[in-house]
Amino acid sequence: MSNAYASIELHVSADRVWQLIGGFDSLPDWLPFIPQSSLSEGGRIRTLQSVHGDNIIERLLDFSESERSYTYTILQGPAPVRDYQATLRVIADGQGAKVEWFGSFTPEGVSEAEAEALFEGIYKDGLAALKESLKA
Predict the structure, then answer these.
(1) 96: which residues sit within 8 A by CB, 6+ positions away?
(2) CATH number, position 26
(3) Which of 16, 29, 41, 120 has the smallest set of CB atoms within 10 Å of its CB?
(4) What is the pLDDT of residue 136?
(5) Structural domain tally of the chain?
(6) Rounded mean pLDDT of 98-105?
(7) Which secondary-structure segment (H or E) carries 28?
(8) What share of the chain has pLDDT > 70, as a percent?
(9) Residue 93 has pLDDT above 80, yes or no
(10) What are the b/e assignments for 14-28, b being 16+ CB within 10 Å?
(11) Which of 3, 29, 4 has its CA nearest to residue 120?
């Protein structure tokens, strides 16, 4: 099992950050490489479309409003991994917030280092985009 992790410190309240990213269907609101998302199965499944036209289907595994976090798995997508599970979490940090995005997975057809670099890049780029979204 491989792992990837990224975090960012933001000078915005945890509640404001969670308001933007806390919805399982909210990726298009802050993540530019996912312009479309639609929910099904009572909000437990999201179908995403990337800017490259790839479809990614994910299932919500756990959601906690009080802990400002959710965990999901990829059911179908182009990533060269299986058994993917990730968490997006917002932690209050004084007047600001720390956002963590981390996951575990088993690489398929690529090395562990390549798979880890892929997801660390996605997480870091995503959190940088989140920071930009919150400046508006």
Answers:
(1) 9, 10, 11, 12, 13, 14
(2) 3.30.530.20
(3) 41
(4) 59
(5) 1
(6) 98
(7) helix 27-30
(8) 99
(9) yes
(10) beebbeebbbbeebe
(11) 4
